[in-house]
Hints:
It contains four helices and five strands. Strands 3-2-1-4-5 form a five-stranded parallel beta sheet, sandwiched between helices. α3 (about 95-100) packs parallel to α4 (about 125-135). It has a domain at about 1-35 and about 70-80 and about 95-115 and about 120-148: Rossmann fold (3-Layer(aba) Sandwich). β2, α2 and β3 form a beta-alpha-beta unit. By secondary structure, it is of the alpha/beta class. Mean pLDDT is about 85; it is low at about 115-120.
Amino acid sequence: MDTGVSGPRIVVGVDGSSSARAAVRWAARYAGLGGGGVDAVAAWELPGIEGWSAPAVDTDFDEEDARRRLAEELREALGPEAGSVRALLVRGHPVEVLLRAAEGAEALVVGSHGRGGFARALLGSVSGHVAQHASCPVVIVRAAAPRP
């Protein structure tokens, strides 16, 4: 994947969570040290429908709204530096999308857990899977604890 950046390419997963925002900040700082670029990747997929008796599923997906929210999340995490990050919205399962995006990258950066159901888990299912299967080093970033 040619990004037009001469330094290392860092891929970071974005999902709206506080640990993903921390991962974006980490990826941007790391890329800046080596003169590289950051690809911020957000994945989306429609719920799977199996069999003929599947319940009705809301399949409306507003891609323009999702792109706006991704750009907003990057601005929130990075401020004015957000413009230097390439934002990619990709359809597919987050693990598969991130593994594909990270091929040839210097590193893949993800939050320790995202928007899944077990908020107290130390490692989310996506971060655990990409750590086991990525073709490049994986950095897992935890969100900073709220200050009292």
